[in-house]
Amino acid sequence: xxxxxxxxxxxxxxxxxxxxxxxxxxxxxxxxxxxxxxxxxxxxxxxxxxxxxxxxxxxxxxxxxxxxxxxxxxxxxxxxxxxxxxxxxxxxxxxxxxxxxxxxxxxxxxxxxxxxxxxxxxxxxxxxxxxxxxxxxxxxxxxxxxxxxxxxxxxxxxxxxxxxxxxxxxxxxxxxxxxxxxxxxxxxxxxxxxxxxxxxxxxxxxxxxxxxxxxxxxxxxxxxxxxxxxxxxxxxxxxxxxxxxxxxxxxxxxxxxxxxxxxxxxxxxxxxxxxxxxxxxxxxxxxxxxxxxxxxxxxxxxxxxxxxxxxxxxxxxxxxxxxxxxxxxxxx
Length: 332
Description:
10 strands; globular; D-Maltodextrin-Binding Protein, domain 2; alpha/beta
């Protein structure tokens, strides 16, 4: 099925005739890894090219401010890690908005050592937890409202696993497809992994954002980029991920095949990319109801004013069209 769909895409592209490819610069929010596999797959398999696009993927990192680069016109699209960033664009009156949610579930997690009793969100009330500044301003507020966590629990997280590995009572934030793997490799034990989304956190993850100007002046370009990215994700999840993985390994020398395999597997097992609304609307899906639920929960947490124009944070114009649904294997 997948091979047939890719062949059909090739034939359709050929039928449109030769044309100059539109160049696109696309910024990630971290270094190349399985969590961006769909984009690298679309690049490696020529899916972007079939949509008339010449795409350059630019890695992110702790010293890279992709929002500033987007504002300066050096990027056409970027990954916004979570729904907070899209609402913050409205709050700060920045001319960007979210146009697709490639992660239906935020892959942020809390991680604890096994056998310590730290095996549920409820059990972590009052327990010291290492988190970063962005988390403190983000989904930590959901945990405070839902489970009664307090800021007194917060300990600084430096994105170094050493403090966690040396303290059996330690609890820290993490990313589903990354830290749990590294911890198991170091300790030989599977850590306790608590997915924030499983606690009812309604925020999307890994959203694609762009400028209002680009949407207004070249909506066809925006649509082609979103459609090609969606097809790339179906190809990566349900087809042969090797082309995308090889490009990730070439781009990020610190990445390993084992971590890539783990990351892709967790994306599939936990329905991070393809679950819920995407089963009918296609990967990248967003809905007004889901955005409203998230906004209301964050108003209760005191992050946003009730009268904020939350609908200005996103548009459904480029998603929910069922693009790529035929590429998903039939369910038994």
